[in-house]
């Protein structure tokens, strides 16, 4: 599974610094404008979304601006979705080294997203509540888009050049064979709901708990093999921009990626989100909460043309996402030649923390050696360390952790997710 995930991640064709330099040398401003809208209908009231277009990497410096958009689809209650909306971004940002430049910040972001998702899961489970949530978090910095996701909420990219790309992976046990293998290898049981008489019905679920997803935030009653480690993909758009459609499974159960994109082409973002929801309801009715966020990444030269009146300018914006070919969803693998092409910078979906946190980046400002890579708590060198002998603190029969420092609680979480121990057991022998 891990090998397959690594094989899917292709190295960038060009260094990130080169791509950022292109932004500076290209006509118009380095930063595109964002236009966004959202819409939804509630059946259970468990969908939430986050829109933060005015984040700053460096406080007080407008040049360090970035934007965040997210969709959370809760289940078994709203607590996990509400908590993630309020705290997930905070946990991600705390895992990013301070005082680093934009290039290093973007390179460190995928790893920080992993740490932030795991931290959110640990903190929420400490509350003792049993709800869970999907999470699809999108960070936009200039023309660079980074998406982290667990569950089956989805983000697609529709570009001016006619490429339609899926930026997330669905973590549904029914469709994802790799995740089924991982869950069973970690100690979970995968099967359908059994009725009286032995008849099996419905989608594949993980037991105990009966969850259809293999990754989520929360769900402490299901088992630690349901992990919060996100699939992360980072891409660099060309200077023609693109449109992101981020939505819960109430949309994707009714519409294909192509149908969702087609439903709103030629429309501004706010109306586009409403049309996607309307089309989903028209197709299958209100069977689930439906939430959609549409974000247009618009080059500055499409905004400030002195030859166009405001009305004509508006029409030009609408036409950005009108012309499309019927190309299939897929990866470009770092190829960039045609207008509207996308550079793939990073992709990783492994559920193993050693692979996600162990690939340390060469940053100018590294974390202190005994700061936990997940919860960001500084410790004394001897505090809460796992040893391989019987003395001192808790002993561990497993191979030493080869990645960055983890505190005792986060190490237990890591071992539990890999099926090595229960993270709920805190007793030491």
Name the poorly predicted regions. 1-13, 304-319, 322-339, 360-365, 384-399, 423-429
Terminal CA distance: 33 Å
The CATH architecture of the domain at 30-168 and 220-301 and 342-357 is 4-Layer Sandwich
Q: Which percent band covers the strand fraction?
A: 15-25%
Number of helices: 11
Anisotropy-based shape:
globular
Q: Please state the CA-atom Rg, rounded to the nearest Å.
A: 22 Å
How is the biggest beta sheet arranged? Answer: 8 strands, antiparallel
Nearest-integer average pLDDT: 81
GO molecular function: metal ion binding; protein serine/threonine phosphatase activity
Keywords: Hydrolase, Magnesium, Manganese, Metal-binding, Protein phosphatase
Cofactor: Mn(2+); Mg(2+)
Organism: Sorghum bicolor
Outline the structure in words:
With 429 residues, the chain is an alpha+beta fold. The chain has helices at 2-8, 16-25, 79-94, 102-125, 177-185, 249-252, 257-264, 269-284, 310-318, 353-358, 408-417; strands at 33-41, 47-56, 65-75, 132-133, 135-141, 144-150, 154-159, 164-166, 189-194, 200-207, 217-218, 231-237, 242-247, 290-298, 342-348. It has a domain at 30-168 and 220-301 and 342-357: Phosphatase 2c, domain 1 (4-Layer Sandwich), CATH 3.60.40.10. The chain contains eleven helices and 15 strands. Strands 2, 3, 4, 5, 6, 11, 12 and 15 form an eight-stranded antiparallel beta sheet that branches. The protein has a five-stranded antiparallel beta sheet with strand order 1-14-13-7-8. A two-stranded antiparallel ribbon has the order 9-10. The longest helix is centred in the N-terminal third of the chain and has 24 residues, at 102-125. Its EC number is 3.1.3.16.
């Amino acid at each position: 599974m891990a090998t397959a995930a690594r094989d899917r991640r292709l190295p960038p064709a060009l260094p990130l610094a080169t791509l950022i330099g292109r932004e500076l040398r290209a006509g118009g401003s380095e930063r595109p404008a964002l236009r966004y809208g959202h819409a939804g209908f509630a059946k259970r009231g468990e969908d939430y979304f986050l829109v933060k277009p005015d984040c700053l990497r460096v406080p007080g410096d407008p040049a360090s601006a970035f934007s965040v958009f997210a969709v959370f689809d809760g289940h078994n209650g709203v607590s996990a979705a509400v908590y993630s909306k309020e705290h997930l971004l905070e946990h991600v940002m705390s895992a990013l080294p301070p005082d680093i430049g934009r290039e290093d910040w973007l390179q460190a972001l995928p790893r920080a997203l992993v740490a932030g998702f795991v931290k959110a899961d640990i903190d929420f489970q400490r509350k003792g509540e049993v709800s869970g949530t999907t999470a699809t978090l999108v960070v936009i910095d200039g023309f660079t888009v980074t998406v982290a996701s667990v569950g089956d909420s989805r983000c697609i990219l529709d570009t001016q050049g006619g490429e339609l790309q899926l930026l997330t992976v669905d973590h549904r046990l029914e469709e994802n064979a790799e995740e089924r293998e991982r869950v069973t290898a970690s100690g979970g049981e995968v099967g359908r709901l059994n009725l009286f008489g032995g008849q099996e019905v419905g989608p594949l679920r993980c037991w105990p708990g009966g969850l259809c997803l293999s990754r989520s935030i929360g769900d402490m009653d299901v088992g630690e093999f349901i992990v919060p480690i996100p699939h992360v993909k980072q891409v660099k758009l060309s200077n023609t921009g693109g449109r992101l459609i981020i939505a819960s499974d109430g949309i994707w159960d009714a519409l294909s990626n192509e149908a969702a994109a087609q439903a709103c082409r030629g429309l501004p973002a706010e109306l586009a989100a409403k049309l996607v929801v309307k089309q989903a309801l028209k197709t299958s009715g209100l069977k689930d909460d439906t939430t959609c966020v549409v974000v247009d990444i618009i080059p500055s030269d499409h905004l400030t043309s002195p030859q166009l009146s405001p009305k004509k300018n508006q029409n030009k914006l609408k036409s950005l996402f009108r012309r499309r070919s019927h190309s299939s969803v897929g990866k470009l693998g770092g190829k960039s030649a045609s207008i509207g092409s996308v550079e793939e910078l990073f992709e990783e979906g492994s559920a193993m923390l050693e692979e996600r946190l162990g690939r340390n980046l060469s940053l100018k400002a590294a974390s202190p050696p005994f700061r936990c890579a997940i919860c960001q708590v500084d410790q004394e060198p001897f505090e809460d360390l796992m040893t391989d002998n019987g003395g001192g603190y808790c002993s561990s029969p497993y191979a030493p952790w080869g990645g960055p420092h983890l505190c005792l609680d986060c190490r237990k979480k890591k071992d539990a997710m890999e099926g090595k121990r229960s993270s709920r057991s805190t007793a030491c022998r």
